[in-house]
Specification:
Blueprint lengths: L9 H13 L4 H13 L10 H8 L3 H14 L1 H5 L14 H12 L11 H10 L8 H11 L1
Helix pairs in contact: 1-2, 2-3, 2-4, 3-4, 7-8
Length: 147
């Protein structure tokens, strides 16, 4: 017995068919539209099992289950569109830290060095106590952004 049963309205069925017939959407969106049309459990529509859907569309059964679940819980748009990532990253350098980094990069290189490297700048920022830790990639992105 399926836990999440997809029952499409006539409007939703028409909308999904339009998405597929236009063919101008992302491959993922087109595939999810096809999955929803085949997973439809309305009385006048043939009943497809998840295994049949996955074989006919060449996707995994887990994908079929996930699309059905997303449709039932969040609606048609959520099942078709990608969801935004939940994670938010805390910035290592604020405006003041960026200013210190740029000033350090524009200044004289440490003794025995011809120029600053990304790693030297990162270690310098940590050594001066502006941040607890800093990767050279963060230094590179910051300097690239500020030119």
């Amino acid at each position: 017995m399926k836990k999440y049963k997809v029952t499409l309205t006539d409007e939703e069925r028409v909308q999904l068919r339009q998405v597929i017939s236009a063919g101008k959407a992302a491959a993922r969106k087109l595939m999810h539209a096809r999955i929803l049309l085949k997973a439809d459990a309305s009385p006048d529509v043939p009943d497809w099992k998840d295994q049949q859907i996955s074989q006919s569309l060449e996707v995994g059964t887990a994908t079929v289950e996930r699309v059905r679940k997303q449709f039932v819980e969040d609606g048609l748009e959520a099942a078709l569109e990608r969801r935004k990532p939940d994670r938010e990253y805390e910035r290592r350098l604020d405006g003041v830290g960026e200013a210190h980094l740029v000033a350090m990069a524009c200044g004289q290189a440490p003794s025995g060095r011809e120029r600053w490297t990304m790693q030297l700048l990162a270690e310098g920022m940590v050594g001066l106590g502006y941040v607890e830790s800093l990767s050279r990639e963060t230094v590179r992105r910051t300097l690239k952004k500020t030119n």
